[in-house]
Amino acid sequence: MASTTQPLRGKRACKKIFWAVFPHACFILSLVIYAFLGALMFSHIEGNRKVNLSEEYRKFLQNLWYISRNLSDNMTENEEIFKEEIHELLNTAERDWFVNPKDIWTFFGSLFFCCTVFTTVGYGNTYPVTRVGKYLCMLYALFGIPLMFLVLTDMGDILATLLSKSYNEFRKLQSKILASKLCSGSTCNKGDELKSRAQSKVVINEPLPIMEVLKSQPGLKRKPIKYRNAEIFEMLIDREKEHTKQARNKSIERWSSCPELARGKTMSRVIENFDKIGKQLEKLDVPIVLMVIVIFVYISCAAAILPNWETRLDFQEAFYFCFITLTTIGFGDTQLEHPKFFLFFSLYIIIGMEIVFIAFKLGQDRLIGLYKKVISFCGEKKMPSKKVYPK
Fold it and tell me: What would the pLDDT profile of 54-71 be if each residue is shown by its tens digit?
């Protein structure tokens, strides 16, 4: 019997893990599929468009030819004038005059554009030009941005759980170290005696009648009535807890004996997992300074790796670019030469945006608490003091 029950327990454990991970994997997979579909759509629409040379492009070429013709042989005399005229002329130029759309709207370029759309970064160096592409971009963002925020909220629960558990473990370790330093030999022995006394209280393995429990506790007769009633009440609570625990175990056995009911209960648990999205993020309570340190270290790691393929960026420029990206500001002043390599950092971007989102959430909670304190302080100052009249 033991050999047959172990594989069944292993299968049940695997099913529980699968259904627990299913909501998170479902959201991430949906976002990946949405990004790939958008990349295929925009690469087809914007990449295959025809470039029509307008009248502005003809005037640009005429002015450029005029400036180059009027140059004298001595460049030192007209160098400053030439620079100013060329600079003004190039400001009137459009990028589409000199770039083939297929070179920009490749699959990876379109995928990078889709990521900047639903993450609300929007660098501005790649944008749709055709009217159909603009309409589809608005529709794509309308559904993609909520999906992205759903993924961020879901992953925020995981990160919030990890951060809170790590922080609590660190606080427990810190308290143990401080207690071991402050604890002397005599006080430790007294503490062990108190623990042993506390553990030697009433332990009920089965829901016995309360009178039998009272008869087995002779120490209750020697205590005052007030303390005796309190211990009787505690024993009643322990007995009720044990009874409910046994009933719960019986119900679990009953569910496991029927596959149809067990399947229905599994699906209800999966639905409950969907309903719990965002709950752990609301319970997170860690110092805001810790989140700032985590953000700094997280961005510094990427800033040290990014210049390996983006040779024009140093550590400071890469740090600035990563910060602008993770905060979804996206000025577009720093452009990447190899954006498809940066796509491999898509998981890094999502996790980084989540860390920044958690930091903003904590900062928002601290600001709300500060506003409450200020308003309550001002309210107490403005309230008139009560006068006490003699009787």
Answer: 666 667 767 776 766 666
Q: Are 34 and 111 in contact (CB under 8 A)?
A: no
- Residues in CB range of 22: below 8 A, 6 or more apart: 270, 273
What does 22-52 look like in DSSP terms, one character per residue? HHHHHHHHHHHHHHHHHHHHHHHHHHT----
Q: Per this entry, what is the length of the chain?
A: 391
| Residue spans per domain, the chain | 137-176+269-380
User: What angle (nearest 5°) sits at the alpha carbon of residue 375, between those of residues 374 and 379?
Assistant: 120
Has residue 146 got a pLDDT over 90?
yes
Q: How far is CA 65 from the centre of its chain?
A: 55
> How many angstroms separate the CA atoms of 323 and 295, rounded?
9
- Residue keyed to tokens 């160098």: 79
Looking at domain 137-176+269-380, its CATH class is mainly alpha
Residue 202's pLDDT is what?
A: 45
Among 38, 32, 35, 31, residue whose Cα is nearest residue 128: 38
Determine contact, residues 107/43, Cβ cutoff 8 Å: yes
42-51 as b/e: b if 16+ CB within 10 A: bbebbbebee
User: Which residue blocks in 126-184 are alpha helix, DSSP H?
Assistant: 131-182
Predicted confidence (pLDDT) at residue 104 exceeds the cutoff of 50: yes
Query: Which tokens belong to 37?
Result: 């579909």
Q: Which two tokens stand for residue 322?
A: 């990563």
What is residue 105's DSSP assignment?
A: S
Nearest-angstrom CA–CA distance, 247 and 178? 42
Buried b (16+ CB within 10 A) or exposed e, 325-357: bbbbebeeebebeebeebbebbebbbbbbbbbb
Give the span between the Cα atoms of 30 and 73, in whole angstroms.
63
Q: What does the alpha-carbon distance between residue 260 and residue 264 come to, in Å, rounded to a whole number?
A: 6
Q: How far apart are CA 194 and CA 234, in angstroms?
A: 18
Radius of gyration, alpha carbons of the chain:
34
90 token code pair:
């190039």
